[in-house]
Amino acid sequence: MGAIPPTAEQIQNLPAALTASVTAAHTDGNGHMNVLHYLDHNSRGADALVRAVGVDESYRQRGAGLFTAEHHLVYYSELREGDEFSVHPRVLERSSKAIHMMTFLLDTGRARLANTLEIMLVHVDLGARRASPLPGDIAAGLDERLDRSRALGWPAPICGAMRIRERE
């Protein structure tokens, strides 16, 4: 893995995309939240960020969308029934056709990082089903998030296997 995981205080400098608590339905036989729910909550946090920059149902009517090309989950501490958490998305890098981002699932009751989801998204022309350049309005929204990310002053704990690979 890459950088040292951020502290809860550092993560809280990123807006929370969602907050929730672990229910009995989220737990597995080991008594903690099941991997499916970590992935679901992190994915919903990432979705909230891309929706905030304009990639939503109306955007898909323009004939474009985002596909997940790759993701990587890392666990730092477990969450159990009743634990409260928040998800904080961060744009790490982008090219004309791809977005590298990460979500941080924060155990709010214990003020510690529970898990991260690193994601590589590809912008796709839904008619051709091929990678295509991000339109200017979406790129500008992502660039605003990227500028905020760079201003945080701490590196994301990336896996090192994912990166933007520009292919024009």
Number of strands: 6
Point out poorly predicted stretches: none
CATH architecture identity: Roll
- How would you spell out the order of helices and strands? HEHHEEEEEH
**Major sheet: size, sense and barrel closure?**
6 strands, antiparallel
What is the top-level CATH class? Alpha Beta
CA radius of gyration: 16 Å
State the CATH superfamily name: Hotdog Thioesterase
Instruction: Tell me the number of helical segments per DSSP (H or I, 4 or more residues long).
Output: 4
The best one-word shape is globular
The count of domains is 1
Brief write-up:
The protein has helices at residues 8-11, 35-52, 57-60, 136-150, and strands spanning 18-21, 64-75, 84-94, 98-107, 112-125, 130-131. It is an alpha+beta fold and 168 residues long.
